[in-house]
């Protein structure tokens, strides 16, 4: 995406966020402006320090953790909104806290800080002159802040109010939307993977403790249904439910807010008019939660359809010599194992088929299977600084490739010299059978 388009998109999102802030803290515009400006400056400085002081995946891990904390905190806010739903007050916190200048300034500061850090990430990682554009964006964001708070916001309809919990939902949905544009910051794919792994582990443990895999009375179609629990769709739908729980709770809390009593009004037409007005006002309260839900839905789509193109070469067929050893030279025609790209190979022996790849990282060669011991073996692709598991979309930093555990590619025993790498065909097949096939032991599971 061109830098100019990125900048304009971020400015639009910032304008929406400022509108939400002013609707939540309409009585404290000075405190809101001061907190937002300070947050933009702090977030910009923090973002540049992060990328200037650390290399590799650490800056991305810090930013991702920051967004994850905001997302987890949203569940607490949603639960609070649900619990307080019968109360008639329509505020972010309570009436007294919402009008307090310190609370207003702090909420605006934290929101603007996280937004600025994400903006710096999106703009400073985009090529030449990106730093200048990032600084220019922050300056434009300050101008936009003043225009929205003091010029545009007073022109909006008065019925467009912020429900309790609506501002945190709007802010976090914006953070998730921006983060979803980068596989390194995306939260939905890791969430789906965790849900999928939790279900897989639970079913495995349950089956083993109950000795179900050896039960003679289960029909094939029963195993087919059980096998559905081991598809990646289970993780996706489970993650989707968790993803939208806060938005659903806040929206339902709006509907749970009681209508004011009109028993003292004698004329029926007047009573109906008052009730209709309150119903219309309550429906308008859903605008910000609805907008946030759309942003979160788009984030899910971005997570499943990243714009990043992954390096994924076609596997080269290799054979073993008479001693059962597979030799892969460092240089073979246009292939150079030390070029930093993953090089895929496939070994066939009768009906047995094993995929693996060789990668040069941290000044040494490593050989791993094109699969892990958790997911179905759909393989890996490589982007800048990471490889990605195509099954669960988990990103693996290049420096951890070759280490066992989690969704990392399964390491393979090998030896390396100046001429290339050498590995045992028998050991390669045994490692595949022991590590990868364990993900498909349950009858009826996907092949």
From TrEMBL:
Keywords: Membrane, Transmembrane, Transmembrane helix. Signal peptide: none annotated. Pfam families: FtrD-like. The chain crosses the membrane at residues 36-54, 61-82, 102-123, 130-149, 234-255, 285-301. Residues 337-429 form the Membrane iron-sulfur containing protein FtrD-like domain. InterPro entries: FtrD-like. This is Membrane protein, DUF2318-containing. It comes from Geotalea daltonii (strain DSM 22248 / JCM 15807 / FRC-32). The lineage of its organism: Bacteria, Pseudomonadati, Thermodesulfobacteriota, Desulfuromonadia, Geobacterales.
């Amino acid at each position: 995406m061109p830098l100019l388009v990125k900048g304009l998109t971020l400015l639009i999102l910032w304008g929406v966020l400022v509108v939400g802030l002013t609707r939540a803290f309409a009585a404290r515009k000075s405190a809101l402006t001061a907190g937002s400006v300070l947050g933009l400056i702090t977030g910009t400085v923090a973002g540049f320090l992060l990328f200037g002081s650390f290399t590799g995946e650490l800056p991305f891990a810090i930013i991702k953790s920051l967004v994850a904390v905001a997302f987890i905190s949203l569940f607490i806010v949603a639960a609070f909104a649900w619990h307080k739903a019968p109360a008639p007050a329509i505020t972010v916190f309570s009436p007294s806290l919402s009008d307090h200048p310190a609370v207003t300034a702090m909420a605006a500061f934290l929101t603007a800080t996280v937004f600025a850090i994400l903006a710096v990430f999106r703009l400073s990682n985009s090529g030449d002159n990106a730093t200048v554009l990032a600084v220019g964006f922050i300056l434009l964001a300050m101008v936009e802040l003043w225009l929205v708070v003091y010029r545009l916001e007073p022109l909006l309809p008065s019925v467009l109010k912020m429900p309790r919990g609506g501002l945190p939902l709007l802010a976090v949905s914006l953070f998730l939307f921006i983060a979803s544009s980068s596989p390194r910051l995306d939260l939905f794919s890791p969430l789906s993977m965790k849900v999928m792994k939790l279900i897989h582990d639970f079913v495995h443990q349950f089956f083993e403790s109950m000795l179900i895999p050896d039960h003679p009375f289960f029909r094939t179609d029963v195993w087919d249904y059980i096998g559905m629990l081991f598809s990646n769709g289970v993780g996706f739908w489970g993650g989707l439910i968790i993803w939208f729980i806060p938005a659903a709770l806040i929206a339902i809390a709006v509907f749970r807010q009681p209508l004011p009593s009109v028993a003292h009004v004698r004329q029926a037409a007047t009573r109906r008019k008052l009730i209709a007005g309150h119903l219309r006002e309550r429906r308008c309260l859903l605008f910000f939660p609805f907008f946030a839900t759309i942003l979160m839905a788009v984030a899910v789509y971005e997570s499943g359809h990243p714009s990043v193109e992954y390096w994924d070469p076609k596997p080269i067929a290799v054979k073993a010599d008479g001693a059962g050893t597979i030799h892969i030279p460092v240089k073979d025609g246009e292939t150079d194992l030390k070029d930093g790209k993953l090089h895929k190979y496939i070994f066939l022996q009768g009906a047995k088929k094993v995929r693996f790849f060789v990668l040069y990282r941290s000044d040494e060669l490593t050989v791993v299977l094109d699969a892990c011991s958790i997911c179905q073996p759909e393989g890996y692709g490589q982007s800048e600084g990471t490889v990605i598991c195509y099954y669960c979309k988990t990103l693996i930093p290049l420096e951890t490739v070759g280490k066992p555990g989690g969704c990392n590619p399964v390491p393979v025993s090998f030896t390396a010299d100046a001429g290339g790498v050498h590995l045992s065909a028998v050991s390669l097949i045994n490692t595949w059978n022991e590590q990868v096939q364990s993900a498909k032991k349950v009858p009826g599971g996907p092949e």
